[in-house]
Backbone:
C-alpha cells in the first residue's frame, strides 16, 4: 500500500511484471494420482510369472520387498523392466504419494525416519552373516543370470531384457554381462581370472552351510524377520526359481540334500512375504 | 585432350563468340545475322572433355556430358556446357571451371571444361547456432570420394543443451544433379533437458534419405530413420510422470517432408512465404513405438507498400497419433514441446503445456500462431536492426487419459466437462503473450531481444515476463 513516505515504490509494485499473466486458466493435464507408495520391481507382472508365486525374479527387488513386508509397510507393487526410472539407475525404487522417489538403498532409512524400521536384530554377528550373503551368495545369482551362457539366455536375456527390441536387447545384454562379470570377480578377488560356475557354486555352498547351521530348528535365521532373512531368503529363492540345472540348484533340491531345512525356510518366507 | 582449333572465317569460334556476347546482353550481329539467328544456328558437338586437376568416374562423365553431346543449337551447347561446369563446382569436384569451345577437325565443335583443383579435405572448427542453443563444433569433410561428387562429413559438437553430439553423413548426387541427393547418416547425441525436465535423452540413429530441390523453392525429402532413444539420468526430484517415461525405445519410421520457401531471407525475411509439412509413420518396419505424426508450418512476410515496415504472420500445428490402441501413450521422445523465444515468446523454453511438478512432459497435439511487425528504427541506418512488435499464442496437450481425454470432475465427483467441451476449450483458450523488442540479422542467425508480457497462461505454464534474449534460425 502506498504511504506518504514511499508512495512511488508501492505504486511500482502494483504494476510490477510479477503481476502477469493477467489471466490464469485450468491446465489440460492431470498427472496420475498416487494414493499409496508404489514399489517398482523387476517383472512383467503376475500374468507373465511363468507359474511362479514370487513377485519378482530379481534378488535385490526381493530383498527390499521382504524388508517392507517384514516392517508391515503399506504399499503397492508395480512391475517394470526399466531401471532408468530409478533415482540410482537400479531397481527397485519406491515412489511416495508426494512424488518423491527412493532408491533401494534409501528405503531402509525411510523406514527408520517414519518409525517403521525393523527392530534391532538379536543375533550377534548379524552384520558378518549379511556380508557373507552379500559377498558369496548374491554373486551366485548374478553369475547365473548374466555370466553363465545358458543362464544368460534363460534368465538375463529372457526375463530382464525380454521387453526390448532385438538391437537394444543385444547391446544392453552385452554391457550388462560385462559389468556383472566384473562385479562378481571383484567380490571374489581370491579367484583372480578364474571365474566359472563351479567356483561360484563352491563359494555359495560354503555360505549355505553357515546359514544352515545358523537356522537350526528356528523359523528365521535370526529368530525373527531381519535384514539377514530378507537377503538370504531372496538369494535362495532366486536360485531355486532358476529355470535350468545348476550345481547350486542340484545341491539344494537333491532328494536327500542336507540343505532341505534351508530350502523349506526359503519357501516359507516366500509364501508369507514374497508373493505378489 | 585436343589442341586449340585453327580459325578460318567464317569460323565456329566467331559465331559462338558472338552468340555468347548476345547472351550476355552485349548485342550481336557482328558476325552476320541477328543474335536470335546465332542462338538457333544448328551445330554438333563432336567431343566433350574435362581437363585439369580433377578426378571423375567414367560413368559420371558420361552422364555429365550427355546433354552437351545432345545439344543441337549454339544456345543449347553454351547452356549445357555452362551447366556441366556449374555441376562440377557445386559438387566440389573442381573449382574455377572454364568452358572452352574449339572447332573440331571433322566439323562441329569440341567442348572442353578446364578445371582447377578443388579442396578435397576440409577441417573446420567453429561455433554454430541452433534454436535457443549455441554449439562448439569440429567438422571434417572429404569431397568427391569416388569420383562422382560424393561427400563424407563428420562433425563433433558440444552445446548448451546438446551435451555431446556426433554426426556422420555420406551424400551423393543422383546421377550428376547436385539438387537431387541421397544421404546416409549416422548420429549420436546426448541432450540435457535440464532445467526444463530432469532427464537426459540419448539418441543413436541411422537414416537414409532421398532429397530433391527444385529451383523454384520446392524441396522434397523422403527419409527412413532407425533411432534408439534412451531417457536416463533422472534427477532426484524427477516427477513420477517423468519416471514412467524413462527407458529405451526403438523407433523405425518413414518420414516425408515437403518445403516451399521463397523468402528473401531465412532469418529476418521481408517478403515471401514458407510452407513446410512433415508426415511420419513409425512402426511399419519394426521398432516398439507405433505412431502417425504430422506437423505443418506456414509463414508469410509482406512489406507495407514501399516502406520498411514488414508484417509477418506465422502458424504451426502438429498431431501425434498413437497407433497402439485407445489406452496407448506416446513416448516422451516423440512428443511436441512449446514455449520459448523461437516458438511462443513470453514463456520459458518448453514452458507451455503438460507439466508434472518441475518437469515438462510434452504433448501430442499443439498449435501456435504469431504476428509480428518489424519497423525501421530512428537514427539507425542499417536495415539489419529493426524494431519488433509481436503477439504469440499457442497451446499444447496430451491425447490420452491424462490430457484431453481425461474426465475432469468437480469436488463431488461429478463430470464437469465432456470431450467436446475440452477440445473447444483447447482451441479457445491458448496461452498468450505480447511484447516489443529488437531484431538483429547476423549472417545466418537471428538475434532477438524482447520484453514480453504474458497475458494468458495455464496454472502449470512457465510465463516469462520481462526481457528475453535469444538467437536462432527459425522463429514463429
Residues:
Amino acid at each position: 500500500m502506498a504511504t506518504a513516505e514511499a508512495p512511488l515504490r508501492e505504486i511500482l509494485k502494483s504494476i510490477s511484471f510479477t503481476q502477469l499473466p493477467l489471466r490464469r486458466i485450468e491446465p489440460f493435464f492431470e498427472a496420475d494420482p498416487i494414493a499409496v507408495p508404489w514399489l517398482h520391481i523387476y517383472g512383467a507382472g503376475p500374468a507373465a510369472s511363468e507359474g511362479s508365486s514370487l513377485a519378482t525374479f530379481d534378488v535385490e527387488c526381493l530383498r527390499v520387498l521382504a524388508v517392507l513386508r517384514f516392517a508391515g509397510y503399506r504399499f503397492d507393487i508395480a512391475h517394470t523392466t526399466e531401471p532408468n526410472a530409478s533415482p540410482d539407475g537400479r531397481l527397485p525404487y519406491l515412489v511416495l504419494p508426494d512424488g518423491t522417489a527412493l532408491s533401494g538403498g534409501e528405503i531402509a532409512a525411510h523406514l527408520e525416519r517414519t518409525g517403521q524400521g525393523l527392530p534391532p536384530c538379536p543375533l550377534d554377528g548379524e552384520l558378518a552373516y549379511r556380508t557373507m550373503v552379500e559377498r558369496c551368495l548374491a554373486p551366485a545369482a548374478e553369475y547365473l543370470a548374466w555370466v553363465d551362457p545358458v543362464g544368460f539366455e534363460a534368465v538375463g536375456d529372457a526375463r530382464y531384457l525380454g521387453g526390448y527390441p532385438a538391437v537394444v536387447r543385444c547391446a544392453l545384454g552385452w554391457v550388462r554381462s560385462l559389468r556383472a562379470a566384473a562385479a562378481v570377480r571383484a567380490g571374489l578377488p581370491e579367484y583372480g581370472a578364474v571365474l566359472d560356475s563351479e567356483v561360484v557354486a563352491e563359494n555359495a555352498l560354503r555360505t549355505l552351510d553357515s546359514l544352515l547351521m545358523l537356522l537350526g530348528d528356528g523359523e528365521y535365521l535370526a529368530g525373527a524377520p531381519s535384514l539377514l532373512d530378507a537377503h538370504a531368503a531372496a538369494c535362495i529363492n532366486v536360485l531355486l526359481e532358476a529355470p535350468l540345472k545348476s550345481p547350486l540348484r542340484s545341491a539344494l533340491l537333491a532328494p536327500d540334500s542336507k540343505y532341505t531345512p534351508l530350502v523349506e525356510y526359503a519357501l516359507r518366507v516366500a509364501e508369507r512375504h514374497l508373493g505378489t | 585432350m585436343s589442341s586449340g582449333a585453327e580459325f578460318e572465317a567464317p569460323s565456329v569460334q566467331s559465331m559462338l563468340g558472338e552468340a555468347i556476347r548476345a547472351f550476355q546482353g552485349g548485342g550481336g550481329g557482328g558476325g552476320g545475322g541477328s543474335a536470335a539467328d546465332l542462338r538457333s544456328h544448328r551445330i554438333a558437338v563432336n567431343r566433350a572433355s574435362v581437363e585439369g586437376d580433377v578426378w571423375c568416374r567414367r560413368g559420371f562423365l558420361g552422364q555429365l556430358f550427355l546433354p552437351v553431346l545432345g545439344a543441337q543449337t549454339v544456345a543449347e551447347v553454351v547452356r549445357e556446357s555452362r551447366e556441366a561446369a556449374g555441376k562440377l563446382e557445386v559438387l566440389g569436384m573442381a573449382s574455377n571451371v572454364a568452358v572452352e569451345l574449339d572447332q573440331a577437325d571433322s566439323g562441329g565443335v569440341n567442348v572442353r571444361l578446364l578445371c582447377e583443383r578443388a579442396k578435397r579435405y576440409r577441417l573446420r572448427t567453429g561455433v554454430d547456432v541452433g534454436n535457443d542453443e549455441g554449439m562448439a563444433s569440429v567438422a571434417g569433410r572429404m569431397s568427391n570420394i569416388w569420383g562422382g561428387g560424393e561427400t563424407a562429413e563428420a562433425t563433433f559438437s558440444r552445446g548448451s543443451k546438446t551435451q555431446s553430439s556426433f554426426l556422420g553423413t555420406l551424400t551423393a548426387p543422383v546421377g550428376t544433379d547436385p539438387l537431387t541427393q541421397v544421404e546416409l547418416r549416422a548420429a549420436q547425441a546426448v541432450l540435457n533437458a535440464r532445467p526444463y525436465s530432469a532427464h537426459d535423452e540419448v539418441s543413436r540413429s541411422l537414416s537414409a534419405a532421398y532429397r530433391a530441390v527444385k529451383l523454384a523453392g520446392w524441396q522434397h525429402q523422403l527419409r527412413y530413420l532407425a533411432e534408439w532413444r534412451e531417457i536416463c539420468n533422472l534427477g532426484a526430484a524427477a516427477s513420477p510422470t517423468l519416471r514412467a517415461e524413462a527407458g529405451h525405445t526403438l523407433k523405425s519410421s518413414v518420414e516425408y517432408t515437403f518445403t516451399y520457401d521463397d523468402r528473401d531471407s531465412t532469418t529476418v525475411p521481408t517478403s515471401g512465404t514458407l510452407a513446410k509439412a512433415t508426415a511420419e509413420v513409425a512402426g511399419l518396419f519394426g521398432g516398439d513405438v507405433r505412431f502417425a505424426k504430422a506437423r505443418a508450418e506456414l509463414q508469410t512476410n509482406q512489406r507495407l507498400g514501399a516502406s520498411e515496415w514488414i508484417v509477418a504472420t506465422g502458424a504451426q500445428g502438429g498431431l501425434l497419433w498413437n497407433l497402439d490402441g485407445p489406452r496407448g501413450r506416446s513416448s516422451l521422445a516423440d512428443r511436441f514441446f512449446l514455449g520459448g523465444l523461437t516458438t511462443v515468446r513470453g514463456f520459458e523454453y518448453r514452458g507451455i503445456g503438460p507439466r508434472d511438478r518441475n518437469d515438462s512432459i510434452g504433448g501430442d497435439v499443439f498449435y501456435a500462431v504469431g504476428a509480428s511487425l518489424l519497423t525501421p528504427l530512428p537514427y539507425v541506418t542499417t536495415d539489419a536492426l529493426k524494431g519488433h512488435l509481436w503477439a504469440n499464442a499457442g497451446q499444447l496437450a496430451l491425447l490420452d487419459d491424462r490430457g484431453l481425454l481425461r474426465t475432469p470432475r468437480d469436488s463431488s465427483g461429478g463430470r464437469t466437462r465432456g470431450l467436446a467441451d475440452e477440445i473447444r476449450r483447447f482451441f479457445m483458450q491458448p496461452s498468450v503473450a505480447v511484447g516489443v523488442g529488437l531484431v538483429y540479422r547476423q549472417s545466418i542467425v537471428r538475434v532477438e531481444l524482447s520484453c514480453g508480457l504474458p497475458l494468458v497462461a495455464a496454472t502449470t505454464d512457465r510465463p516469462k515476463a520481462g526481457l528475453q534474449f535469444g538467437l536462432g534460425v527459425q522463429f514463429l
User: Anything to note?
Assistant: Residues 74-90 of chain B form the longest helix (17 residues).
